[in-house]
Amino acid sequence: MVVAEAVQLETTTPTFRFRPQGPVRFFVAAFLAFWLCGWLAGEVFALLFLWRFLATFLVTGQGALPAALFLLVWVSLWSVGGAAALHHLLRAVWSEDRLSVAGDGRLERQVRLGPFRHRRVLPKAAILCFQVRDGGFGGPLVAVLPGRSLEITRLGSLSQRQKAASQLNRLLGLRPAEPDDRPAAPAVLPAGWKELTPSFGSPLLVPDPALRRRHRLVMGLVNLVLWGLLALLLGGGPARPGFWGMGIPLALVALACGWAQVWLMFGRREWRLEPRVLVLQRRFGHRLRTLGEARALELIELVDSDGDRSYRLQATRSPGGKPLLVDHQSGDPASLRQLGAWLAARAHVPFEDRVPSEEQRRQQRAADMERLRLQLAASGRLGRWAAQQLDRAEATGACRAKQRTDT
User: Fold this and answer.
1) Segments of the chain scoring below 50 in pLDDT
2) Which of 71, 104, 150, 179 could be bridged to 143 by S-S, CB 3.0 to 4.6 A?
3) Hey, where are the domains in the chain?
């Protein structure tokens, strides 16, 4: 049996259980519950108005069409927001993530959200290791796969997720990633891209045509709804109240979505793979325009004002030239790293991974903490007291980390 703070073994199968923790979640849940009361009132009001409008329109052929169109769009977005708020409320007070390890090494993840449960079998043979990703107050427990990572849970405390990662690696005989390790990206084209080999000329890297077909289908349905609403509005004539106030914004949105549909049908950005050169070009129908050339690749990390991280794979040009965007992604940079490795091997250009490792992040946080401590110590008596509290908190955290390592 496996024993850990995040683990309760109810059977002979090692089962890791993660539940919400901390008092902050109750404040979040209280706010969301209060917000959902207002959400429910707005939802009921909008649905009643739409029902009355539909009944009146079917009987008399008249009704406040602009207001009904506005409410139809509003209630759709309002419903999505309410579903998201309910999801976060249940996640904060009534949820659980379980990861079970069977005797044959099969991994099963079970997610419970309120009364709903979902099971998924993880590809154990493809898992390289388990680790806790850095995320400020504690990142998620993830399973590292070739070229990507699979999030297991964000529940539980940071120490629980770290202990579970250590025990999972030991149970399955996996080598845990070192703090300064960078994931080795295989030179395999990731999902979402496709290489085309024309009858003449150099190979092309283009967005996956199957994925673009799905995008065209979704955008076509959106256009069908928007242009249908615009036709209903125009059918009522400009004499209706609110015709111009509702018609002009709706027409602008419909035109923008219509142009997006045309672009998905006839246009695309593509990369031409020349020896030691990457050429970005735009294709629209039979017209082709070169946007720039690059001779190197780099993967960088961007951090916004909220501390959220995003990643950008870009092709660098001569000094002073603006980099050309290849792709960007938030969350896990594994697929961008894999795409960069594939492009570097395919076009024989250098690829630099500039995303900081976990050890570099820890060193940066330590340097920032030391700089903050010095600023506090130089600010006066209250600052010196705050610096002493930081020293004590750091010593306590180091002691607890050593105890977890010893156990």
Assistant:
1) 1-11, 136
2) 150
3) 103-172, 202-268, 274-353, 358-406
Question: Amino acid letter at 396?
Answer: T
Q: Model pTM?
A: 0.66
Residue 324 and residue 352: Cα distance in Å, rounded?
15
Give the helix, strand, coil percentages of the chain, each rounded to 5. 50, 25, 30
Q: What pLDDT was estimated at residue 257? A: 92
Beta bridge partners of 153: 141
Q: What is the dihedral of CA 330, 332, 336, 342, to 10 degrees?
A: -170
Cα atoms in the Cβ-side hemisphere of radius 13 Å centred on 97? 21
Q: How far apart are CA 124 and CA 281, in angstroms?
A: 41
Asked whether the beta carbons of 122 and 150 are under 8 A apart, the reply is yes
The three-class DSSP label of residue 406 is helix
Closest CA to 109 of 128, 130, 87, 94: 130
- The strands making up 148-153's β-sheet, listed across from edge to edge, are 129-132, 141-145, 148-153
